[in-house]
Amino acid sequence: MRVPSAGISPTGGTAAVAGSVGAGDVRATGPAGATSAEGPPSTARPGNPPAAPSYADTPPMHVLPMGERALLVELADGAAAAALHAELLRRRAEGDLTVREIVPAARTVLLDGLDDPLRLAARLPSWEIPPPAARAEGVLEIPVRYDGPDLADVAALWNVPVRDVARIHSAAEFRVAFCGFAPGFGYLTGSGDLPEVPRRATPRTAVPAGSVGLAGPYTGVYPRPSPGGWQLIGSTDAVLWDHARVPAALLTPGARVRFVPEAA
Amino acid sequence: MTDRAIAVVRAGALTTVQDEGRPGHAHLGVPRSGALDRPAAALVNRLVGNPPDAAVLETTLNGCALRPRCAVTVAVGGAPCPVTVDGRAAAWGAPIRVPAGALLDVGSAVSGVRGYVAVGGGIAVEPVLGSRSTDLLSGLGPPPLTDGAVLPLGVAPVTHARVDTAAQPGPPRELILRVTPGPRADWFTATALRTLTTRAYRVSSASNRIGLRTEGPPLERAVGGELPSEGMVLGAVQVPPDGSPVVFLADHPTTGGYPVVGVVRERDLAAAAQAVPGTVVRFVGVGGWPGRRG
């Protein structure tokens, strides 16, 4: 019961997520996660076959077709994707845009459930996209016990004493870049020079809910028990997912987050 | 017992509750879910007078057996199969009356994979994010049926079915999937794009509600390296490193990092839900598929 998907998902390695119904198997980013920062460009290049029609190529925005009802908008980086995401939400709230799903990811935003993708594809490149305004709700604080089983490994990778991992990690401000892998699982990018870490060579078959992990440029918190390959540095009692709550996810795309050390 | 509920006597290989799914939450990592063969689910609802968003049961290959605690109207559709009530043959693809305490047996599919069982009033389990669908990827919604489970039913519709019987397309002998290019068609060689739309693939037995996996000539990449995670859509044809295309179905992950060479038209996905392992799959390039005129 697994289907490929990739990117840095918090589960196992390339091959598979054993046994779990579908937590898509996912490969790691390469060592130090460098690949997620710079993927190959998506436009056709010399020597390549004719590309799928790209509706609009106004650098740094590429508007790519994705079936009959969707557009995948590719941007230069995560910050540009965040800005477009914020602008799309604003326009939808104002009634200027009708779309079922707005799904940000590492450096793309997917628009699914459009009545007329071609029309929007033509309009998008002319949009003025302001930098995202700080969200009114402020910074969400997540209490963390920095007692994860990979704390020493992360300290070694960062070349710092073990106790400094908590200090460094909790000093950064994070932003939820996107969600995926499981309901309520956010991929958080940190401010400053938070060092990247590779995923574990061997994923764990069971990671407890509330585990705080690192992989590539991302921090994530497991909303429920699952297999996992991220480096676990701590744990939280925060409820990441509660479908009776609105919104059900504690971490929604664009939210600002800080991790606050608790006594372990 | 006269309560509005139905007991599961034989759950079958995999029987789930399905409705129109829970679109609109993909940004939180929530798959759309919902019935795989949407026209079949809509039809059985119509046959019992239910609204189109009522929850039905989706069976897999070998049906299920149910004992209602009250008299109910039921319709069985999707994959054709024998239907009996207390051992007597009953109609498939038409409304049938099942008395309280009688045993409704939905048999093994004669052809196709997924059967649909609508009960007047719908399966009334507690909705999650507006849907009663079982989502096998993320575990949202009710668990798959188990022997002995009891499912609540909604209030029986007062309206009568507008149709008594209805033609349903048989399962495909060959699965034709029309595919539009992109967004990552340019990550593949021209040969790969031609291979996908000219060679035959087969439905793999590893297929499930998350994706229709195929076996056939692998698709060669023109661009190496890794793709950062990006949003996924229903019908996306994702190509993992082994080169065998996977067509995303209702429980697909909301983001993924293997390149999507094309997207299958939504109206072709109902047939994909009914294609048994081994069925020949032909991808037909449409919508400006590279190298194809028209």
From TrEMBL, chain A:
Residue ranges of the region described as Disordered: 1-60
Gene3D superfamilies: 3.30.1360.40, Cyclophilin-like
Domain Carboxyltransferase: 61-251
UniProt GO MF annotations: hydrolase activity
InterPro entries per UniProt: CT_C_D, Cyclophilin-like_dom_sf, PxpB
Lineage: Bacteria, Bacillati, Actinomycetota, Actinomycetes, Kitasatosporales
SMART domains: AHS1
Protein's UniProt name: Allophanate hydrolase
One Pfam family named in its UniProt record: CT_C_D
Amino acid composition bias (Low complexity), ranges on this chain: 12-28
Keywords: ATP-binding, Hydrolase, Nucleotide-binding
From TrEMBL, chain B:
Sample GO molecular function, one term: hydrolase activity
Domain Carboxyltransferase: from-to ranges: 27-293
InterPro entries: CT_A_B, Cyclophilin-like_dom_sf, PxpC
Keyword entries, A-Z: ATP-binding, Hydrolase, Nucleotide-binding
A Pfam family of this chain: CT_A_B
Superkingdom of origin organism: Bacteria
The keyword ATP-binding appears for this protein: yes
Protein name as it appears in the record: Allophanate hydrolase
